[in-house]
Write a structure and sequence with these properties.
With 191 residues, this protein is mostly helical. Helices cover 73% and strands 0% of the residues. α3 packs antiparallel against α7. It has one domain: Vanadium-containing Chloroperoxidase, domain 1.
């Protein structure tokens, strides 16, 4: 691979920064939970808003789900072994995943990038923060030894394309939300 040397440099850096290992492991393992909580909060907040606002918020979990499904298919199709399997004697701070859990593209990164890009429809400012999160996710996946640099770059690109495609789907999604709301109106609050 063209980026074996970069990968080895990053995992070597991880071996020489044990004080950062716990942060890298926690970030890579648990930040997707935070992403899910943010999505839930956005949906909860949007529920009483107009149809377009609901559609914008609803696009975020849809984009993440589509990104997950597409990435899973790409991984199976390409079947690139994890670098911790392909490079002999590499020391990583996380154990290597199973032989059948492939490397390209990085699933964690695809999910983070699709979240950040889809969030753009709701809030450009929060989307910028989410992109910082996505870049940190990409870096953490190489740092813990799970992916090559090209895996996370591809993950950022795939996630961005899916997330930003919501710009083209906002009209139909808004119409769907309006149709569903017309058939199932929200109950009125009791006084």
């Amino acid at each position: 691979m063209i980026d074996d040397a970069w990968y080895l440099d990053v995992v070597g850096f991880a071996q020489h920064t044990p004080w950062l290992n716990a942060i890298g492991i926690a970030f890579t393992n648990y930040s997707l939970i935070v992403e899910g909580l943010v999505i839930s909060w956005l949906l909860w907040r949007a529920r009483r808003s107009g149809d377009e606002t609901v559609a914008r918020a609803l696009w975020i979990p849809i984009a993440v789900l589509v990104a997950y499904l597409l990435d899973t298919g790409l991984k199976q199709l390409i079947a690139e072994p994890r670098p911790c399997r392909a490079l002999p004697n590499v020391l990583t701070i996380l154990p290597c995943d199973a032989h059948t859990d492939y490397s390209f593209p990085s699933n964690h990164t695809v999910l983070a990038a699709s979240f950040a890009a889809a969030l753009f429809l709701t809030s450009r400012r929060w989307s910028l923060l989410a992109w910082i999160y996505a870049l940190l996710m990409a870096a953490s996946r190489v740092y813990v030894g799970a992916h090559y640099p090209h895996d996370v770059v591809a993950g950022l690109l795939v996630g961005a394309v899916i997330g930003y495609s919501g710009v083209f789907l906002l009209g139909p999604l808004t119409s769907s939300v309006a149709s569903i709301r017309a058939r199932h109106p929200a109950p009125r609050a009791k006084r």
